[in-house]
Specification:
The structure holds two protein chains of two kinds.
Chain A (H helix, E strand, L loop, with lengths): L1 H24 E7 L2 H17 L2 E7 L4 H10 L7 E5 L3 H6 L7 H6 L2 H4 L2 H8 L11 E4 L3 E6 H4 L2 H11 L9 H11 L7 E4 L8 H12 L19 H14 L11 H9 L3 E7 L18 E5 L10 E2 L3 E5 L6 H11 L2 H10 L6 H5 L1 H6 L3 H8 L2 E2 L7 H18 L4 H18 L5
Parallel strand pairs in A: 1-2, 1-3, 6-7, 9-11
Antiparallel strand pairs in A: 3-10, 4-10, 5-7, 5-8
Chain B lengths: L1 H6 L6 H4 L4 H30 L18 H7 L2 H32 L6 H13 L2 H12 L5 H6 L13 H26 L3 H9 L4 H30 L2 H6 L8 H10 L4 H31 L1
Helix pairs in contact in B: 5-9, 5-11, 6-9, 9-11, 11-14, 13-14
The chains are: A alpha/beta, B mainly alpha.
Chain lengths: 436, 301
Amino acid sequence: MRKTVTGILAGIGFTLACGTSAFAQELTIFWAEWDPANYLQELVNEYEAETGVKVTVETTPWSDFQTKAFTEFNAKGSAYDMVVGDSQWIGAASEGGHYVDLTEFFNKHKLTEVMAPATVKYYAEYPSNSGKYWSVPAEGDAVGWSYRKDWFEDPKEMEAFKAKYGYDLGVPKDWKQLRDIAEFFHRPDEKRYGVAIYTDNSYDALVMGVENAIFSFGGELGDYANYKVDGIINSEQNVKALEAYKELYSFTPPGWAKSFFIEDNQAITENLAAMSMNYFAFFPALINEASNPNAKGTGFFANPPGPNGDQYAALGGQGISVVSYSENQEEAMKFLEWFIKDETQKKWAELGGYTASAKVLESPEFQNATPYNKAFYETMFKVKDFWATPEYAELLIAMNQRVYPFITGDQGTAKEVLDALAADWNATFKKYNRVK
Amino acid sequence: MATAVMTTLDPKSRAASRGLSDISIRNLFIIPTIVFLIVFNIFPLIYSLGYSFTDFRASTNAPAKFVGLANYRALLNDPFIWSNFAITAKYVIVSVTGQVLVGFGVAMLLNRAIPFKGLITTLLLLPMMLSMAVVGLFWKLLYDPSWGVINYVLGLGNFEWLSNPDMALYAIAITDIWMWSPFVMLLSLAGLSAVPKHLYEAAAIDRAGSLYTFFRITLPLVAPILMIAIIFRTMEAFKTFDLAYILSSQPTTEVISIRLYKMAFQEWQTGMSCALAYIVLIMVLAITNIYVKYLNKVKER
């Protein structure tokens, strides 16, 4: 009997000991399944070597990243200590009480100066201009373009292009040239197509693609400060931008109606398209000969300006936030302090992560490290993003519902589509009492 | 006799020797099931009915506000929701009709003495045993215009099965027919083999034509079991999510369950999506009821 009791007590003691030590020495970061998450795992392994705290990066496919994260938040689950959440989530996650307020941490470490301004504005601050911060910019990202340099530099192609369009074939200097080049290389008989763009309407792919056009044509999605959309989302520039995007769709490979980053990189690796839109985060695969047989002939450029010279790109990327329901918040804060150090950020960039640290971005080492880092640096100072209000998902779905049939299915006119979208968005904002 | 078996416990059984009465045995088996049903089915069902009258959002901490029938009103006035229903109806009709035609046809072919009948039947059942998600991913590759096998074999060139808004729903239905025809075939085969042989002999003696025999003998006798297959397939097709979600993101293939999923787990409009779920539930119940009525009528004949 006595033996049993001792055994049970020892067992309980052992469990408790394991339990507490596990709490103190393990952190879980939740992110989507893609290369940067692997780079982050490599980075945090160094943290473990330094401090003994084991950090695990848990991932899930992009398509259910949002659903899985919010299911966990809504259940007030403590499975994740930190999450590298999408920039649009910040409204929903901060108002829902899912993220820990990092304003104090931000001010203490002067992160508004350390990180590139656009990343602070879109990944960290909510509501806009409130001075309240919810996440530390982690993976900067934006949409850029890759292109087949070998096709562009073929003397025969250059001659034929000049004869047809009257100017030299090269990296497009504006959206008009982008369109011309796409048309020029679009040769279905040769199984070569002009351009690969985002068209998947299941999350934010198509909207991001369209945003590239809208922002560079000088348009906006709405006034983020007072939720005014009528006259902004359906402005003249936006109508032109939407038409331009639709025209690009006619130069895409066949079956291009559900494409996102995987398909757009395939367009380059499988010799399908001359130019391809994609997030910078997916470019490392394109300069690697193991994953891209055309690596040597692939070049990169930033999203070109629109007709009036405005040049912007749609923002991707994420900030890292501490989950309110985590039992290891203190440990998580210590980790963040390590993460924002200059050395860590430098290491992060070397591993392949896109740092948001202004100092690293500006350094010549970073800019010369890859063929696309310079374009990335330039882009990160002129990015714009989608709505970050808690009801962003409804706005996103409404935009997909309206825009997708027009782009891929020839339904309605750009003006009709955007007018209807303005009405949808206005109704949503009314529903949540954002506008009268 | 049957009731006697159910109520008396064999006095020599181990249960009886342990002093368990009939009632306690019954409780032992039934109560966990009932508890399970109540906790995981009935309770959420009623709870979500409550939510359907509120503006509750699971993603925020804001308390739910009672809004009466506003959710139902908004949903039934939403043209997008109606188009989702129309798409679902079209899908159900195409896919169930296809499955019945193919499934019943194959069953007719198999309902005779042929070599390797058992092996052929088993092989034909394979599609049904695969996971929906796997089938979806495979067919996405098969349909691909650039490297898909289907266009290559049929010589269709660059035909866009899934990107063409008018074709995509049929492409999904074809996949569904491929996957679930074996189910209809299996049930039909059971029905066909139960048709008494002497009826066919009598028909042969009377020199009845094969069409006449089919419509007057085979079909009426197989009808009840075929109806059951149709009920199952209709309910399943009405709820289709996986195949349509994986194969295409065309608005023309957004069946109601995809819209419901987006509303509930992407937009987090919990109250609104509960209301939509109830509308779908009522529709499925109504359709099934019509079928069941018809089934009873068929059985009476």
